[in-house]
From TrEMBL:
Belongs to the glucosamine/galactosamine-6-phosphate isomerase family. 6-phosphogluconolactonase subfamily. It catalyses: 6-phospho-D-glucono-1,5-lactone + H2O = 6-phospho-D-gluconate + H(+). GO terms for biological process: carbohydrate metabolic process; pentose-phosphate shunt. Keywords: Hydrolase. The lineage of its organism: Bacteria, Pseudomonadati, Bacteroidota, Sphingobacteriia, Sphingobacteriales. Its EC number is 3.1.1.31. It comes from the Bacteria. Hydrolysis of 6-phosphogluconolactone to 6-phosphogluconate. It comes from Sphingobacterium paramultivorum. This is 6-phosphogluconolactonase. CDD domains: 6PGL. Residues 9-225 form the Glucosamine/galactosamine-6-phosphate isomerase domain. One of its GO terms (molecular function) is 6-phosphogluconolactonase activity. It holds the Pfam family Glucosamine_iso. Pathway: Carbohydrate degradation; pentose phosphate pathway; D-ribulose 5-phosphate from D-glucose 6-phosphate (oxidative stage): step 2/3.
Length: 236
């Protein structure tokens, strides 16, 4: 797997933003659109902020991009716990994206399991039967989880559905998430994880015995197009 260890986070954020710009250009040139799935949380916030600045925004053909979520807590988009709330506030509300090309992972008045099916249908409508995202941005938790693929959960064995929802007992809430099959189809995957708290899990993911039940990030295939951006505190 292609791993880059940065001396400081500013350099990491800049390289991640540059990667987004370059991949968008290649995809749009190839098939006239750029279809992405973005993670929320703290790790990508600074990257999204950079992309919204004129230095980056002016290089991107926003109306050719389709934005999906990687995963979400099943809460209102106005809730501070919502991943997509941050994505909207920091990036999507600040750039000229077509609103009908933004697909939040939440809808009021519908059960999460039913919305997972509807969300998969939206992905199929944009990507077709192949379901190949141009770009997926992932993070990694201190426990080695990625997306809402948490250690020991049944969803780690899902091989058919592209999107699923389930009740995560330790958090006492429903989560909706892309699954391993659709994530691993992606043309390009960037995993951003940094800080001392990630060091042990990252070491296990990269160098430990293969045990995705314990370290779910190991489900992501080590192949061309998959990159990890990290820093010296987390890097191995």
């Amino acid at each position: 797997m292609n791993i880059t260890i940065f001396n400081n986070l500013d350099a990491l954020y800049k390289e991640a933003a540059d990667t987004f710009v370059e991949l968008s250009k290649k995809a749009i040139q190839k098939h006239d659109k750029f279809v992405v799935a973005l993670s929320g949380g703290s790790s990508p916030k600074a990257i999204f902020s950079l992309l919204a600045t004129p230095e980056y925004s002016d290089k991107i053909i926003w109306n050719k991009i389709h934005f999906f979520g990687v995963d979400e807590r099943w809460v209102s988009l106005e809730d501070e716990k919502s991943n997509f709330k941050m994505t909207l506030e920091v990036l999507l509300n600040k750039v000229p994206v077509n609103k009908n090309q933004i697909f939040p992972m939440y809808k009021e008045g519908i059960e999460p399991e039913n919305y997972a099916k509807a969300y998969e249908a939206q992905i199929r409508n944009v990507l077709g039967a192949d379901g190949i995202f141009d770009f997926i941005l992932l993070g990694m938790g201190d426990d080695g989880h990625t997306a809402s693929l948490f250690p020991g959960e049944k969803i780690l064995q899902e091989k058919e559905k592209w999107v699923d929802a389930y009740y995560l007992k330790p958090q006492a809430m429903f989560r909706i998430t892309l699954t391993e099959p659709i994530i691993n189809k992606a043309e390009n995957i960037l995993i951003v994880t940094f800080g001392k708290s990630k060091r042990n899990a990252l070491n296990e993911v990269l160098n430990g015995v293969y045990n995705p039940e314990l370290y779910p990030l190991q489900l992501i295939e080590k192949k061309a197009g998959v990159q990890i951006f990290t820093d010296k505190e987390a890097g191995i």
